[in-house]
Every structure is written in C-alpha cells, then in structure tokens.
Design brief:
By secondary structure, the chain is of the alpha+beta class. The chain has 10 helices and 19 strands.
Length: 419
C-alpha cells in the first residue's frame, strides 16, 4: 500500500496506488436546499445511458430521500456499520479534530480509519456486496415514514395509509463521485478501472472487465453496477463526450453532463478545475467551483471519512439535524450552513450561475449593483445587493448573465390566461 495525501482528511493515508493526479479534475456541486425530488436527472441519465437489456436496475444517477432511503438500499448504513466495527476491533474512534484546520486541511484532521486503512490483508478496501433484492429499484418506501404491508416487490396489495411525517427528510442527489482515490480502481483484479489523465473521470474498460464485481463490493458509494447480460460492471461516465467537447452539441467547448443540464430546480453546477502534481487545486478565485468549495467552503464532500476524496460536493440542507449532517459531510457543516444562510456578496452572485447554460463555466465576474435589502440573519446584520453574475466558457465567451433580483414579467391584458 502506498501513502497519499487526502486534503479532505487533512492527512496522509494508505492507498493501493502511488500518488498520481490528472491535469484537470471533473467536479460538481449539488445544492440540496433547492432539490424538489422530481427525478428529472434520473430519467435523463436512464434515457441516455442505461436503456438497454440488462440495464433495467442500473440507475447511475439517482435521488434518494434521507434518512430512510438509499440505492442500493441501506448502502451508507451498512458501510458505516462496517467502519464502526473496524474501529472497535482496532480500539480506535472515528473522530475529527477541527482545531487543526488550515490551508491543506480545510475541515480539520480525521483521526479515524478510512475504508482502505480498515480493510483486511486480502482486500484493498472495506466493503460488501449488496444482495439482488437491494438493487430492485430506487425510492421504495422513501417518502413514507411509516411501515406498510407489501408483497415481495414492495408493492402494497392491501391499500396504503397516509404517511405520518413526524420527522425530517431531504433529497440526496447521487452520481459516481469520480474520486481522487477510487476504491473501485484499487479493488479491480483486472486493472480495468482508471482515471482519465485529462479530466479525472473514472471509467471501466469493458474489454478488460470480467465481471468479478470487486468494484461493486468495495466502492463505498455503490456506484459501479453489474450487468448480467454482458457479465461486466458499468457505471456513470460523467457524460465524458460532453465534458471533452466531442459531443456534436458542444460546439468545441466542454458542456454540462445530462443530469446537470435537465435540472428544473437549478441545483447543479459542474465543471473542470486545474490540479497540481500533488493533488491540490490551483488557486482560481474567479472559478465558481473554487469559490464554492475552497473559498466559501459551503459545498462539502459526501462521507469524507471513507477516504476516497470524492469530487462531487454538496451544500447541506439547513433544516436537518446537525449531528446527522456532520456524519454525512464532516465537521464543516455548521460553517457551510451559516455561510449559505447569510451568503457573502460574492457567494450570492455565484449561486445565480447554477443551471444557467449547458456550457461549462470556467470563469465568472460580478458586476456590482445597488443595495436592495438590509435585514438580520441569525441576529447579525446582512445586506443584499442586486449584483450581476457573468459566466464565461472555456474560450472566454460570455454564456450566462443573471442578476440577483430576478426580473418580473407581467402578462399583457389580452393574454391574462394563456390556456
């Protein structure tokens, strides 16, 4: 096992391969606060990539309801239990030390075991293989907080009662995280899984894959999926023809993925960030993803304690219990929610750029506007300005221009009702 630096954890950790990083890394931010659970992203991915025979249960993109949902079912609960058992066996605890936060450790230092460090001598990472029943379909029972009778497919044959929502929930949007240290790549006996050097997208070489399903077993997020008709594993490919600008619609510039481009809630923003030889992000204060993840730190990785350094980040929901969110996103949750609830002038402008264009935004500018609101947030004074956020594509062309205050359009009298 090699030793690599994981900036999510703020320390070095063990991994199957030596330190190596792409020139650029595919990165996305999902704003959980805006998601309406419509599954448009899920349908777009299914219609584009997994509509063929043997792919019926493949949902490379899915939106699941937390805390009771998951695809495959219970995926995060099971890996957390395995990780907890490994800590107990080693006489250790999985704790964070936020007091050690710094430029190379924005969330502090994680003192617990990662899935690679907790694995046995014969495995590259801690994991499990979900039974077929847990892959049957996403979203069963997720919006019903009470149990109801059902047959073996989970469909109620006796009628359903209305759910009693006496608890909280939120929607979690998931694709492959295209991790910096992917457990699936480390686990593959055939070395069929690799990160592309040009953009860090993780792919499975179908010619080399023999369907051993070690990637399915040892990916903690359970995003590689086995296809019985071909006896190979497949996974989210980050719509790489769009990312690399080879899609006919791209006009020669990198585009958003399909799941990003169709989102009605405008919760998604993805792009490419420059990466140094040691894995650090190149400082780019005018890049929207750099602003969200590294400067403002409102977007956090999913289960950073797993140690894979995922490259999909989330703005946590403001209404969920903080203890649950800290387990899911690490110790940066409180700061992230505070900054999102009372965003800085620059952050508020950047948030307008979500889902405004199919072209990736590589740089943005903010044109300052007038003061439109003075109020208090959390007992502290806060001001809103009607600034304008301007986004530019890979060729420096303007592709988005949005003001903080959305314009209001009134229907003319002759078209009061358009039906």
């Amino acid at each position: 096992m090699a030793e690599v630096f994981n900036w999510h954890l703020g320390r070095k950790m063990t991994y199957a391969f030596d330190e190596a990083h792409p020139q650029r890394q595919f990165v996305a931010v999902f704003n959980i606060n805006r998601c309406i659970g419509c599954q448009t992203c899920t349908g777009a991915c299914k219609a584009t990539w997994t509509f063929s025979k043997g792919q019926e249960y493949m949902w490379w993109n899915n939106v699941e309801s937390k805390p009771y949902g998951g695809y495959p079912q219970h995926w995060d609960i099971k890996i957390l239990q395995l990780l907890e058992a490994a800590h107990q066996a080693a006489g250790r605890s999985a704790e964070w030390d936020p007091s050690k936060a710094g430029p190379t450790a924005p969330y502090g230092v994680y003192d617990g075991l990662t899935i690679s460090e907790a694995a046995g001598a014969e495995e590259q990472a801690l994991g499990y293989l979900p039974p077929d029943a847990e892959w049957r379909a996403p979203n069963f029972y997720e919006d019903t907080s009470t149990a109801y009778p059902g047959d073996r497919l989970g469909i109620s044959l006796e009628g359903a009662s209305l759910p009693e929502h006496q608890t909280w929930f939120f929607y979690l949007q998931r694709i492959c995280n295209h991790c910096t240290y992917p457990a699936c790549a480390a686990a593959c006996p055939r070395h069929a899984i690799y990160k592309r050097p040009e953009d860090g997208i993780v792919l499975i070489d179908q010619a080399r894959c023999r369907g051993y399903r070690k990637c399915v077993e040892q990916c903690p997020y359970k995003k590689p999926m086995y296809r019985g008709t071909t006896r190979t594993s497949e996974k989210c490919v980050a719509c790489y023809p769009r990312v690399e600008a080879s899609d006919p619609l791209s006009e020669g510039v990198p585009m958003e993925t399909r799941c990003m481009a169709v989102c009605p809630g405008k919760i998604r923003l993805n792009g490419l960030v420059d990466v140094t030889a040691d894995g650090a992000w190149v400082e780019a204060p005018d890049h929207p993803l750099y602003t969200l993840v590294r400067q403002e730190q409102v977007a956090l990785p999913l289960y950073p304690q797993f140690g894979t350094e995922p490259n999909i980040y989330y703005i946590p929901p403001r209404w969920a219990p903080r203890a649950y969110l800290r387990q899911m996103f690490g110790p940066g949750v409180d700061q992230a929610i505070a900054r999102y609830a009372a965003p800085s002038r620059r952050l508020l402008a950047v948030l307008q750029l979500f889902r405004t264009t199919q072209r990736m935004i590589f740089r943005y500018e903010v044109e300052e506007g007038p003061l439109v609101l003075e109020t208090e947030v959390g007992g502290l004074p806060w001001q809103m300005y009607d600034d304008t956020a301007i986004g530019f594509d890979a060729q420096g062309r303007e592709v988005a221009r949005l003001s903080v205050i959305e314009p209001i359009y009134e229907r003319p009298a002759e078209r009061v009702n358009s039906i």
